[in-house]
Amino acid sequence: MPLDPNTLGDLISTIRRYVQERLIPIEAQVAEEDRVPAEIVEEMRHLGFFGLTVPEEYGGLGLTMEEEALVGFEVGRASPPFRSTFGTNNGIGSQAIVIAGTEEQKQHYLPRLATGELVGSFALSEPDAGSDAVAVTTRAARDGDGYVLNGTKRFITNAPHAGLFTVMARTDPAAKGAAGVSAFLVEGGTPGVTIGPKYKKMGQQGTPVADVVFTDCRVPGEALLGGVEGQGFHVAMRVLDRGRLAISASFTGFAERIFDEMVAYALQRQQFGRPIAEFQLIQAMIADSKADLVAARSMVLEASRACDRGERISLLAACCKMFTSEALGRLADRNVQVHGGAGYVADYPAERHYRDARLARLYEGTTQIQQLVIARNVIRAAKAAMG
């Protein structure tokens, strides 16, 4: 059930104030230390950030997709590592269980994910299976009443902190493509699970990303998501559809933050005896940026409402992910341009924003993958209409 308007308004106001007063002031510290302070993580747990989308019966707030998007606009204004701290619990870390888990799996894991006691992580990508997700080679071989997992997962967000991995593995090596892929719930610390060193990244310091290696990792039969083999890839795609909407909202919020800083700088920066905001070529960048923001916010809200109506959203989610990530990149680039030389040095946030924004066009499906998803859906629908 959606929250009543007053409760939703209070939630949004609380998050807006928390982002402005607690998160934004320590962004430089997080980037320098490459970690979100433990006290901030604890505050996020106390505020319920880890369980925003977990159903109420399992201890979360059970936000609708539109409500999650509205929250994402606010949280996204802070540097991306803050959202990533709890974002996997609300998205790819928990939603597979919500969508396809058995009641026992939901009871066992969702309450702890909602409180942040467990950090969830989604282990799909591999060294040779990133964009080509159906090419996963991690193997889950049946052994008695359980399974033995072997394989490597690459670029897994929050892997060093994760207490629960949702792992895509091939249970039927003879089946082609998605048909032989199943999903498993593997707890951190299980013998045979090794976490690689954290990657040093271009941006988004504070978001730990590492490889996860499974070596003769034995899990019980109850670890099979939903208790059914062969459904892993289809569950993953449903999870990613909703996840793409959530991350599109955060991209939009980040772009709005960058826009506000760009306009503020243009108003106070003087050249030729007047603010640079008075020059038409600067105004053109401001106008283009505002149009991007209006389109992004409208697109995310419309797609979120379609999701809440129970409609298929693969096409809309891909459109949102493609447009908002590209728009964020444009905003971050224009922001550097408006700042001039100041935008290229680390003394100003514009430089960090530019690096942080670049990842948006790569993760959760590259722009090019979104283009393929969009085109295929459009062509399929056109063919069906033609009979």
Explain how this protein is built.
It is built from twelve helices and nine strands. The protein has helices spanning 5-23, 27-33, 38-47, 65-75, 80-90, 95-100, 103-115, 232-268, 280-308, 314-339, 349-358, 367-386, and strands at 120-123, 139-143, 146-157, 164-170, 181-187, 193-195, 209-220, 270-271, 274-275. The mean pLDDT is 95. Helix 9 packs antiparallel against helix 10. Helix content is 51%, strand content 14%. The strands form three sheets. Strands 2-3-7-6 form a four-stranded antiparallel β-sheet, with no helix packed on it. The chain has a three-stranded mixed β-sheet with strand order 1-4-5. It is of the alpha+beta class and 387 residues long. The chain folds into three domains: 5-115, Butyryl-Coa Dehydrogenase, subunit A, domain 1 (Orthogonal Bundle), CATH 1.10.540.10; 120-229, Beta Barrel (Butyryl-CoA Dehydrogenase, subunit A, domain 2), CATH 2.40.110; 234-386, Butyryl-CoA Dehydrogenase, subunit A, domain 3 (Up-down Bundle), CATH 1.20.140. The radius of gyration is 21 Å and the shape is globular.
